[in-house]
Amino acid sequence: MDLDADRRELTISRQLVETEEGMLALPPKSTASQRTIALDSETLRLLRELERLQRRGLGPGWHVTGPIFCKPDGGPLHPDYLSYHFHKLIVASGLPPIRLHDLRHGAATLALASGADLRVVKGLLGHASIVLTADVYTSVLPQLYHDSARAMAQMVLRAARRTARRVRRGHTVEV
């Protein structure tokens, strides 16, 4: 991952993969997985704070080109490490079981609920096809269907009111 703090963007260009030779940073599995994600100001603030703490803790061992999330020695975290510790946090919190990977689904659901376009969610998740995004996520939020129905009804009613005003003023309306 490459962080561009000035543009508030995070580019996913590599992933850690466990191989027979050990952990290797390789390109993501598809070209769609290589993507740039826009960051909100709070996330950027937290990433900058993490960088500051790492820089202070690692001293000369810290590298600007190193991983954003790293071990105390500056090396990359094993992917299973995050899943293991996430599971421990979930159990300790008393929350219902959820996998770290499930947070992707949560992010997609929240993005859709906030009004994000399906193409934006597709890009956020790194899906190659909008069909996959639509098939998996559009059924998640029934509220979106109600919101859409309400918005369409309001649009039709506004147009009907404009038409009714023109008719009352004596203008002819062609159908």
Written account of the structure:
This protein is an alpha+beta fold. The protein has a domain of 99 residues. The protein is 50% helix and 12% strand. It is built from six helices and five strands, in the order E-E-E-E-E-H-H-H-H-H-H. The strands form two sheets. Strands 1-2-5 form a three-stranded antiparallel sheet, with no helix packed on it. A hairpin with a 2-residue loop joins strand 3 and strand 4. Helix 3 packs antiparallel against helix 4. It starts with a strand and ends in a 7-residue tail after the last helix. The mean pLDDT is 84.
What is the terminal separation in angstroms?
A: 56 Å
- Poorly predicted residue ranges: none
Could you spell the SSE succession in H and E letters? Answer: EEEEEHHHHHH
User: What's the number of extended β-strand segments?
Assistant: 5
Structural class: alpha+beta
**Helix share of residues?**
40-55%
Major β-sheet profile = 3 strands, antiparallel
Number of alpha- plus pi-helical segments: 6
Mean pLDDT across all amino acids: 84
Rg, Cα atoms, Å: 24 Å
Strand content: 5-15%
Shape: elongated
What is the strand arrangement across the widest sheet?
A: 1-2-5
